[in-house]
Fold this sequence. Notes:
Keywords: Disulfide bond, Glycoprotein, Immunoglobulin domain, Membrane
Organism: Anopheles epiroticus
Mean pLDDT: 87
Membrane topology: Single-pass type I membrane protein
Protein name: Ig-like domain-containing protein
InterPro entries: Cell_adhesion_signaling (IPR051275), Ig-like_dom (IPR007110), Ig-like_dom_sf (IPR036179), Ig-like_fold (IPR013783), Ig_sub (IPR003599), Ig_V-set (IPR013106)
CATH architecture: Sandwich
Amino acid sequence: MVLKPCGRYVTSTEAEPQQTFRITPNDIEAVQGEEVVMRCEVEHLAGRVQWTKDGFALGFGNEIVGYPRFSLNQNHSDGVYNLRITNTSYDDAALYQCQVGPAKHNHPIRAQAKLTVIATPKDFHAKFSRT
């Protein structure tokens, strides 16, 4: 047992640092065709990390099956798990979530962000111009 400054005793498992986010993803507005990186960094990582797109799990590997423009740029020792999307398209607009699973003495944690994909001024002009 450990005596906390408040005078309360806690077990050693409560005194261990819990996994927590150092950097959470931010909402992003991208122009169609741009590359985006959704950042996710974890302190005291204990569980496994994955991203979801509108609730669909994208997996744990660097390459994301079925999404060739998506990749997970990870550095386990630094707790970095950034989702990279190249050549964004309208289909990529969604709610993304960085999920860290439970592990011994650690609860799961989640952080989400919205990706909005907009047309370039050139695309907009071509669609609505009169010739």
